[in-house]
């Protein structure tokens, strides 16, 4: 892909010598994967888009809302493979907009929740490029509804924490473990599958019972979604046994146990000593 060719020559000046206005950027959250979970506003923006920069987690079914002749640029980032570094993505967006092109920036889930949409919006604001933001359902919301884990069921939780299990390169897992291990709280960790043993170890070391119900939700809302439940202590072994891979969420808290009442095929979460349960 020759990205330079996409950037048209600098905006031409009008008769008074003023540069034409830059293009606009629409930052759109594509939701967790199921295209039926797109917002109406997102669908309208997709249908109108002429140029789209999209990420790895945007499902092919979501892209079907695009016009067939819309230009598509894949700028996806997988945990170990970056097609374009984030700084280059931002630079490309700025250059395209400065050259007068309007574009739609499409991200999985919600762009402002672990999506680096905030960094992109900051850069656009700093450059004086007009932009709008269309929210999307974040993966935790999609997963909760899809697998039957009501994240703030009041019998079990009075707070909900969305946290990342993967910090910036080289910084390690420098988390506020005491805060995450508070009682009567649901914790949903994004990007944590590769650090799962350390996450479970730290939560237990900071006070959560090893018997705390926990779940892994892989590819939530997609046709091959999987939900694996167990106790916090047994979750790393379950992840290995079932070869859980990103994208997946880790959910920790009493609310996970409610699933057994909402999903007829789901087994109760049992103590660590008992056989583990996995539900596809
Ligand atoms: C870079 S973050 C993007 C989050 C996104 N902005 C959102 O609001 O959902 C990527 C992580 O989100 C989670 N994720 C995104 N989509 C998912 C899905 N369909 N099922 C499970 N986890 C998902 C995974 O933890 C994945 O590693």
Sheet-strand content, in percent, reads 15-25%
Into which percent range does the helicity of residues fall?
25-40%
How many DSSP E strands? 12
| Ligand species | S-adenosylmethionine
Name of the CATH architecture of the largest domain = 2-Layer Sandwich
What is the radius of gyration?
Answer: 21 Å
Can you tell me the CATH superfamily of the largest domain?
Answer: Tetrapyrrole methylase, C-terminal domain
Mean pLDDT: 90
Largest sheet: 5 strands, parallel
| Molecular shape | elongated
Q: What is the CATH third-level topology name of the largest domain?
A: Methyltransferase, Cobalt-precorrin-4 Transmethylase, Domain 2
Give an overview in words.
It is a single chain. With 280 residues, the chain is an alpha/beta fold. The protein folds into 2 domains: 3-10 and 22-134, Tetrapyrrole methylase, N-terminal domain (Cobalt-precorrin-4 Transmethylase, domain 1), CATH 3.40.1010; 139-262, Methyltransferase, Cobalt-precorrin-4 Transmethylase, Domain 2 (2-Layer Sandwich), CATH 3.30.950.10. It is built from 10 helices and 12 strands. It has helices at 3-6, 40-48, 60-63, 86-98, 117-127, 139-147, 177-180, 196-205, 235-241, 259-262, and strands spanning 25-29, 51-54, 71-74, 77-78, 81-82, 103-107, 131-134, 159-164, 185-190, 213-218, 226-231, 248-252. Strands 3-2-6-1-7 form a 5-stranded parallel sheet, sandwiched between helices. A 5-stranded mixed sheet has the order 8-9-12-10-11, sandwiched between helices. The longest helix is centred in the first third of the chain and has 13 residues, at 86-98. Residues 272-280 have low confidence and may be disordered. S-adenosylmethionine is lined by residues 32-33, 57, 107-110, 113-115, 138-139, 143, 190-191, 217, 219-222, 246-249. InterPro entries: 4pyrrol_Mease, 4pyrrol_Methylase_sf, 4pyrrole_Mease_sub1, 4pyrrole_Mease_sub2, CobA/CysG_C, Siro_Cobalamin_biosynth, Uropor_MeTrfase_CS. This is uroporphyrinogen-III C-methyltransferase. Its EC number is 2.1.1.107. It is an enzyme of class 2 (transferase).
């Amino acid at each position: 892909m020759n990205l330079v060719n996409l950037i048209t020559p600098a905006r031409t000046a009008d008769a008074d010598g003023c540069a034409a206005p830059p293009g606009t950027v629409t930052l759109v959250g594509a939701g967790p994967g199921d295209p039926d979970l797109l917002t109406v506003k997102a669908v309208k923006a997709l249908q109108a888009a002429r140029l789209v920069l999209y990420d790895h987690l945007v499902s092919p079914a979501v892209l079907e809302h695009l016009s067939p002749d819309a230009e598509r640029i894949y700028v996806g980032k997988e945990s170990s493979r970056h097609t374009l570094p984030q700084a280059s993505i931002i630079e490309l967006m700025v250059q395209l907009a400065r050259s007068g092109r309007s574009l739609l920036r499409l991200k999985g889930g919600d762009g402002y929740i672990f999506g680096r949409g905030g960094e992109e919006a900051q850069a656009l604001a700093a450059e004086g490029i007009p932009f709008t933001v269309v929210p999307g359902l974040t993966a935790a919301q999609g997963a909760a509804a899809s697998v039957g884990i009501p994240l703030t069921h009041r019998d079990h939780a009075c707070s909900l924490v969305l946290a990342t299990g993967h910090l910036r390169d080289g910084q390690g897992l420098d988390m506020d473990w005491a805060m995450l291990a508070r009682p009567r709280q649901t914790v949903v960790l994004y990007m944590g599958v590769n650090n799962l043993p350390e996450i479970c170890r730290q939560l237990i070391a900071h006070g959560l019972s090893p018997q705390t119900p926990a779940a892994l939700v892989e590819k939530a809302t997609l046709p091959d979604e999987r939900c694996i439940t167990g106790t916090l202590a047994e979750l790393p072994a379950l992840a290995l046994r079932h070869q859980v891979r990103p994208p997946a969420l880790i959910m920790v808290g009493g609310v996970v146990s409610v699933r057994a009442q909402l999903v007829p095929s789901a087994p109760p979460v049992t103590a660590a000593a008992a056989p583990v349960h996995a539900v596809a």
